[in-house]
From TrEMBL:
Region of interest (Disordered), ranges: 185-215
CDD domains: AAA
Domain AAA+ ATPase positions: 451-632
Gene it is expressed from: mcrB
Biased composition (Basic and acidic residues): 196-205
SUPFAM superfamilies, per the entry: P-loop containing nucleoside triphosphate hydrolases
UniProt keyword Nucleotide-binding, yes or no: no
Pfam family, one: AAA_5
Descriptive protein name: GTPase subunit of restriction endonuclease
Record keywords, A-Z: Endonuclease, Hydrolase, Nuclease
GO molecular function: ATP binding; ATP hydrolysis activity; endonuclease activity
Ranges that cross the membrane: none
Lineage, highest ranks first: Archaea, Methanobacteriati, Methanobacteriota, Stenosarchaea group, Halobacteria
Compositional bias of kind Polar residues: 185-195
Length: 759
């Protein structure tokens, strides 16, 4: 063993483990590491100069913290599957270079790497010296030297500190350990295999995995991992019903799971509720992990029966879901705690139909993993190649699987909209019952959503109606991914018809004839189904300026749908009539011609009160489907006393601070006076703070020192367009013209030209 003095002088190089066991990363390794990238290519995108050729590897954004630990002189060993690390290369440099990554790995840059699966770009670049072939047994490296339970790697990561110390104690340094395991040193970059075969050819010649979306995902995703998750059968009822796995202390290991990883659903047989009979100990489902979400309401039998107000606050959602049984047997309308024992046992039996029993699975596992089912609630499995246990289990299970929507489209929204959704928006102190606070607005919206209503935000222009709708919609999709898959935004127009909202026939490619017509879904139907994959989705839609559309002409059959009834459209797809179905009538999988409307789907519409009488009116039948939430302009002092002027000035300064604008006092009071006269000249005619933000920004950034010029031009630019068509606009303009900071002559000239009024 080396002396302590010798060890102290050894290199401080670190060792990193890189997964490279599936065909796609192996192809990348062959092309950009072993073959190398020539200088005439890489120097187009970087100032770094590594000579005639350099190896290049890349990491995804969520591995940035790991990438930052890399240093020149570190070593990266590449795991090739079959418990073998086959190649090693030394780090020559690192660089964040999205453009180079896009050119080297375009499929990962544009999201096409995995078909319907999302793929992150490999934009955190690692430059590598020429690789060497090594023979490193993963049981030796990970089991003996790193003291890890698993003998494979699914994440790019550094060796642990204890492992580094042990390697240096036993071999002298990381370099000497690598030297002792080196088989071949390549003199130049390039394929040195005289047969011309790549390292992935041998893999391709063997048995290929089943043709199934899960295996397509594993082969295309970046560093996916497979986790076997064991849970009681009645917990799985909640997971499938709510389309999310709650993360509590028992399942804290799920905190290591990342989007794109794969979960194997293992029902452990023994229920949480002792009244239920034991069920099969079996695998029955597979899910591709989506985003993390938050929850407050109780989901599981244990949570619903607990007096404690604290439940797991986070959960894992799913991007794709495959089950062997029938989830349509689950009663989503009755809380789990209120269902009878017989009802829950029937649901469990249906869910575990065609599942793989624990006994039959054990026979196919590698001998070293025969006790896989006895290791704990969450176990990461080797999924690096077709011979690994993870892929073996999947190969057995997938023939029995049916894909189901990954969102809980039969469930209503049951949570709260927090006031924090509106952080960054200024809510003035409540001077009247009409003034909104952030918490009051959040409670109004929550009540509307829980009552099953769509929402129309009304109020004067510039009060932030669209901003509020956008924030609520974004909050729903980001925090409740088990219910919502995104959102959409559109602006209503007078030309809208059912062709725009529902859809209609358009020339397509049916049967190869260019004049064939096929059904193309419209704005609303596209919120329910992904046009590319056909997967169920749930995207709340924001319709700006709703009453600019002729509602009867634009919504047509959607009136019936919004009332909760099924609709059959006068169009066909695959020779079957298009059906619009409320989710409560459809729990299982859907056909191509069916569009399921999730119970939690909502329209968030906006309507300017200025437009209410001048545009299309909404019928009472339509309005009954909506809750109208008014977002008023703030109360402004009506008087011109010193006290009122100071209050007005402070209101402007409060808003300016929120917007990070810094007007002078004369600018703030001038803008405040314009706002006051605009809002008080005519009853029920006002503008909101968004327009004042535009005015303040214009004034603060204009190089002209004269306040009269800047304020007058800002009124012409931002307030006059709001007055077009307003019956009493002359009175509003006349009151503004009396303000001392306004150039009356310039204002009158503009009012004649733009508003056709003379002062």
């Amino acid at each position: 063993m080396p002396s302590s003095e010798h060890i102290a002088c050894m290199s401080t190089s670190k060792l990193f483990l890189a997964p490279c066991a599936s065909s796609r990363p192996q192809d990348h390794f062959q092309r950009t590491v072993r073959d190398g990238v020539p200088d005439e290519f890489y120097q187009q995108y970087t100032r770094s100069d590594f000579g005639e050729s350099i190896g290049i590897w890349g990491l995804v954004p969520n591995l940035k913290s790991t990438w930052e630990k890399l240093s020149v002189g570190d070593f990266v060993v590449f795991y090739w599957g079959n418990k073998q690390y086959k190649y090693v290369a030394e780090v020559a440099g690192t660089e964040h270079n999205p453009q180079l990554a896009k050119e080297l790995w375009p499929a990962y840059a544009d999201g096409s790497a995995g078909g319907d699966d999302q793929a992150d770009p490999w934009e955190y670049i690692v430059y590598l010296t020429e690789p060497r072939e090594v023979d490193i047994d993963s049981e030796e490296l990970q089991g003996e030297l790193l003291d890890e339970d698993k003998q494979f790697t699914m994440r790019f990561r550094p060796a642990n500190d204890r492992g580094h110390q042990r390697i240096r104690e036993e071999f002298g340094s990381i370099e000497e350990y690598i030297e002792s395991r080196t088989v071949t040193t390549f003199d130049t970059f390039g394929n040195n295999d005289s047969t011309g075969k790549s390292d992935t050819d041998d893999k391709a010649s063997g048995d290929s995995p089943p043709d199934h979306p899960i295996f397509n995902h594993l082969s295309s995703a970046v560093e996916p991992a497979i986790f076997r998750v064991a849970a009681p059968p009645d917990l799985w009822l909640s997971v499938v019903e709510y389309r999310g796995f709650p993360i509590d202390e028992t399942y804290a290991r799920l905190g290591d799971v990342e989007r794109g990883d794969v979960l194997l659903f293992h029902s452990s047989g023994t229920p949480m509720d002792g009244q239920l009979s034991p069920s099969k100990d079996a695998l029955f489902g597979v899910a591709v992990v989506g985003d993390r979400g938050t929850k407050e309401s109780p989901w599981t039998w244990k949570e619903q029966g607990s007096d404690s107000a604290t439940h797991p606050s986070s959960f894992l959602s799913f991007d794709r879901l495959f089950l062997s049984g029938d989830p349509s047997a689950i009663d989503c309308t009755t809380p789990l705690k209120e269902r009878s024992v017989n009802a829950r046992e029937r649901e469990i039996t249906a869910l575990l139909k065609a599942s793989l029993s624990k006994e039959s699975i054990k026979k196919s596992l590698n001998e070293s993993d025969g006790n896989l089912f006895d290791r704990g609630y969450v176990v990461e499995m080797d999924a690096t190649d077709e011979s690994s246990n993870g892929q073996k289990l999947l190969s057995q299970l997938v023939p029995a699987l049916t894909e189901y929507p990954p969102i809980a489209y039969c469930r209503e929204f049951e949570e709260q909209i927090p006031a924090s959704v509106f952080d960054g928006l200024h809510f003035p102190s409540q001077s009247s019952q009409d003034t909104k606070s952030a918490s009051g607005l959040a409670m109004d919206i929550t009540a509307a959503l829980k009552s099953g209503k769509h929402i129309v935000f009304t109020g004067p222009p510039g009060t932030g109606k669209t901003e509020v709708a956008s924030r609520v919609s974004t909050y729903l999709s980001e925090n409740h991914p088990n219910l919502f898959t995104g959102d959409g935004l559109t602006t209503a127009t007078a030309d809208w018809s059912t062709f725009d909202t529902i859809g209609g026939y358009m020339p397509g490619a049916g049967n190869g004839a260019s004049d064939d017509l096929e059904f193309s879904p419209g704005i609303i139907l596209n919120r329910f189904k992904n046009r590319k994959s056909g997967q169920q989705q749930n995207e709340p839609i924001i319709i700006d300026e709703l009453n600019r559309a002729d509602i009867d002409k634009a919504f047509g059959q959607l009136f019936t749908l919004l009332s909760g009834q099924s609709v059959t459209l006068p169009y066909t797809k695959n020779s079957q009539e298009i059906e619009l179905i409320p989710a409560r009538e459809r729990i299982g999988s859907t056909e191509l011609h069916q569009y399921v409307v999730p119970q939690s789907w909502r329209i968030f519409a906006t309507m300017n009160t200025y437009d209410k009488t001048s545009l299309y009116e909404m019928s009472y039948a339509f309005m009954r489907r909506f809750t109208f939430i008014r977002i008023p302009a703030p109360d402004l002092p009506t008087g011109t006393s010193r006290d009122d002027e100071e209050k007005l000035e402070q209101i402007v300064f409060d808003y300016a601070n929120t917007w990070d604008l810094h007007p002078e006092r004369k600018e703030a009071i001038g803008v405040g006076r314009v706002w006051r006269e605009t809002n008080h000249a005519v009853e029920n005619r006002a503008i909101g703070p968004a327009i004042i933000k535009d005015i303040l920004s214009y004034i603060c950034h204009h190089p002209q020192e004269n306040i009269e010029y800047r304020l007058t031009q800002s009124v012409i630019s931002y307030i006059f367009p709001q007055l077009e068509g307003v019956p009493k606009r002359k009175k509003i303009v006349r009151n503004i013209a009396k303000i001392s900071e306004i150039d009356e002559e310039a204002l009158e000239e503009a009012s004649v030209d733009m508003l056709q009024i003379s002062l």
